[in-house]
Design a protein that fits this description.
6 helices; alpha+beta
Length: 196
């Protein structure tokens, strides 16, 4: 669980704002505030407004208010582990309220990773929803949950990263690093493959 032990183990402030989300950072509906219960949710409202697709200052807001290394690491790790049940539910958002003031996303409920499926099978290409691994809305697409790649809804933090040229470049570099390290090049001898 994302609780005080989770924060302590990662050197994070347990007094930061924590919300369990059940949307793509698009609304205060279907959210559950878990910390700082003495306050309202003005911080969440500011996050939603800042990441909104129609915000003309979205790029600046992203750079000033999101912990990009942390967020990008989570987003790309989710691609590499084929975590298909994320970003419009099954995650938390956290703000280092007393420190940097920056937001990130935290994983939760990771039962549909490494090929675990309940709707379709992008890994083998045996999709039940007329879905193929290279289609733009495939859950295996590197930009899953950004505009144009989100069959189940856009996550505005993911979308803001993919839409921002510099952040997108950081995202792609990190994804390449993780692919090389964990998925490994095609010619890697079978005995050296990590996941297999």
């Amino acid at each position: 669980q994302v609780d005080e032990d989770f924060f302590t183990a990662r050197g994070m402030d347990p007094e930061g704002a924590l919300y369990k989300m059940n949307n793509g950072i698009t609304s205060t509906a279907n959210t559950e505030k878990r910390t700082r219960l003495h306050e309202g949710n003005a911080d969440l409202e500011a996050l939603i407004a800042g990441l909104a697709i129609g915000n003309p200052n979205r790029n600046t807001w992203l750079m000033d208010n999101v912990d990009l290394p942390s967020a990008i690491n989570y987003f790309t790790c989710a691609i590499v582990t084929q975590d298909f049940d994320r970003f419009t539910k099954n995650y938390y958002i956290y703000r280092d309220t007393n420190g940097s003031g920056e937001w990130t996303q935290l994983p939760w409920d990771k039962d549909l990773t490494f090929g675990e499926r309940f709707v379709s099978d992008d890994i083998s290409g045996d999709g039940f929803l007329d879905e193929t691994p290279d289609s733009p809305d495939s859950t295996a697409h590197p930009f899953w949950c950004a505009t144009g790649h989100a069959r189940h809804g856009v996550n505005n933090m993911v979308d803001a990263v993919i839409a921002h040229p510099a952040a997108r470049e950081m995202y792609l570099r990190r994804l390449r690093t993780l692919m090389d390290e964990f998925l490994q090049p095609p010619a890697t001898p079978a005995a050296q493959l990590k996941f297999e």
